[in-house]
Amino acid sequence: MPATCYRCAAESPLPVPTIDLPSQQGDPFGVCQECSSMACITCGVRVQGDCIFQCVMCFSSIVLLTESLGGDGDDGGPGGGGGGPGGDDDNGDGEATGRPYVSTAAFEALEPVLAALSSDERRHYHEHLDAYLGLVVDYAFDEARREEIDERLGVTAVADAAERARRADLRRGAQRLARDLEAASAAGVLRRDLLADAFGVASYAIAVPPGEEVTWSRLMMLADVRLRFIVGAAASALGSSIAPLSA
Ligand SMILES: [Zn+2]
Ligand SMILES: [Zn+2]
Q: How far apart are the first and last CA of the chain?
């Protein structure tokens, strides 16, 4: 069996790319430094500046989400570092750790293929970012609101162990994201446009458009608990109340 891109195989069939691509979709051209998956031209990025290769599932959290929250001073790894943007994260070595993805414009200039492929999903999060950020806080800290959202997600009152685990994961994701957003905001390092891009690329990465139901197995392809909350719960919960992706 020839070498195959993990995302293309795991999520088969993927949506047909909407742009002309310079090589065959599915043919790997890199191995993700974080998760060791092989990735093809539609599913991987060679991170500019760092010159390391990542699949889009890892890139959405380790690069885009991290940078949108002000950077964490190290590569974190799947799930991100524990310190968060409010932590003492300069490692004392004075080395500049920021990546060049400082804005949506910079991301689109540096990664034109991924930017084009994920443009619909990113537009959705750019347009509705405030609604999403409101939901993060509600779900993290407002129990009544959380139950209401769980209900919309089809979470049953009598949950089995798997369902309880799923619920706990979403809650953890919302709480962690709420804390990180607050810390980044307080420190004046929050990049809202890049945050919307991180959510959009994560949604693109698991090939589930905002508003559509996300299966647990598909969602778990994302290593970052904060992105799992956004694309796995918030997008489904908000999907029916805000404009559909194609509008
Ligand atoms: Zn692929
Ligand atoms: Zn990866």
A: 41
For ion ligand 1, residues whose CB falls within 5 Å? 5, 7-8, 40, 43
CA of 38 to the centre of ligand 1 (A): 8
Q: Kindly give the distance from the C-alpha atom of residue 28 to the centroid of ligand 1, in angstroms, as a whole number.
A: 7
pLDDT tens per residue across span 13-69: 777 666 776 667 788 889 999 999 999 988 999 999 888 999 999 999 999 999 999
pTM for the structure as a whole:
0.85
Which residues are CB-neighbours of 121 under 8 A, at least 6 positions away? Answer: 199, 200, 201, 203, 204, 209, 210, 245
CA of 30 to the centre of ligand 2 (A): 10
For residue 65, the 8-state DSSP code is I
Burial 131-154 (b: 16+ CB within 10 A, else e): ebbebbbbbbeeeeebeebbeebe
